[in-house]
Amino acid sequence: MASLLELKEIFRNADAVCFDVDSTVIREEGIDELAKFCGVGDAVAEMTRRAMGGTVTFKAALTARLGLIRPSYEQVQKLISDNPPQLTPGIRELVNRLHQRGVQVFLVSGGFQSIVEHVALQLNIPTANVFANRLKFYFNGEYAGFDETQPTAESGGKGKVITHLKEQFHFKNVVMIGDGATDMEACPPADCFIGFGGNVIRKQVKEKAKWYITHFDELLKELEER
């Protein structure tokens, strides 16, 4: 197992950095915001807590939560326009700095493509670098389920995305940053995991992550060390 010093070295020499989105790049959990918007906030927030703690499989939790919310296409679009996701302080500067260093930045999320692409746009991350779940709608805009073939729709999916990126781009050092159990599970194949507690602290992640931060400034400082 790599020491904290070794993890910091991997981060400083990263070819690619993959960020979780909900409660990491943005302050909120996208699915909880959508649930509140659709009037089923409390029930869905409890399911999210269980999913993030790793006590139920991600796919089971996602299926159950979406079955309660049943968001229409119009509701999803209205959520983005009326309550756009709030970027976590420091993330814009960190992504800019990584881009300046020639590091590829990816958003790997169990959230929804339409919301995550909106976030990517704000951070100058190409939509090709977004891996997230896709909602499906009938021709009249009513909810029709989600694309279960996406790797991010199941537990272990973020690791599958990283394996794919390594094979496609021959990255040597890939870093995964996130707040939840599904992010921590992605290392390996990620070469370094950084736990993030700036918006919410997941006890399991805080206890098990070798490198745990609460503000992105901590990572910016690491990059300035060289």
TrEMBL record:
Enzyme Commission (EC) number? 3.1.3.3
Q: Which domain of life is it from?
A: Eukaryota
Where, if anywhere, are coiled coils annotated?
none
Q: Does the keyword Cell division apply?
A: no
Q: In which pathway does it act?
A: Amino-acid biosynthesis; L-serine biosynthesis; L-serine from 3-phospho-D-glycerate: step 3/3
| GO BP term, pick one | L-serine biosynthetic process
Q: Does the keyword Metal-binding apply?
A: yes
Pfam families (UniProt xref): Hydrolase
What this protein catalyses is: O-phospho-L-serine + H2O = L-serine + phosphate; O-phospho-D-serine + H2O = D-serine + phosphate
Could you list this entry's UniProt keywords, alphabetically sorted. Answer: Amino-acid biosynthesis, Hydrolase, Magnesium, Metal-binding, Serine biosynthesis
> InterPro entries of this UniProt entry?
HAD-like_SerB, HAD-like_sf, HAD_sf, PSP
Q: Which Gene3D superfamilies match?
A: HAD superfamily/HAD-like (3.40.50.1000), Phosphoserine phosphatase, domain 2 (1.10.150.210)
Active-site residue list: D20, D22
**Cofactors, names only:** Mg(2+)
Q: Name one GO molecular function term.
A: L-phosphoserine phosphatase activity
Which EC class does it fall in? Answer: hydrolase
Q: Name one GO cellular component term.
A: cytoplasm
Q: Which PANTHER family match?
A: PHOSPHOSERINE PHOSPHATASE
The UniProt entry's sequence similarity note says: Belongs to the HAD-like hydrolase superfamily. SerB family.
What's the stated role of this polypeptide? Answer: Catalyzes the last irreversible step in the biosynthesis of L-serine from carbohydrates, the dephosphorylation of O-phospho-L-serine to L-serine. L-serine can then be used in protein synthesis, to produce other amino acids, in nucleotide metabolism or in glutathione synthesis, or can be racemized to D-serine, a neuromodulator. May also act on O-phospho-D-serine.
Q: What is this protein called?
A: Phosphoserine phosphatase
Gene that encodes it = Psph
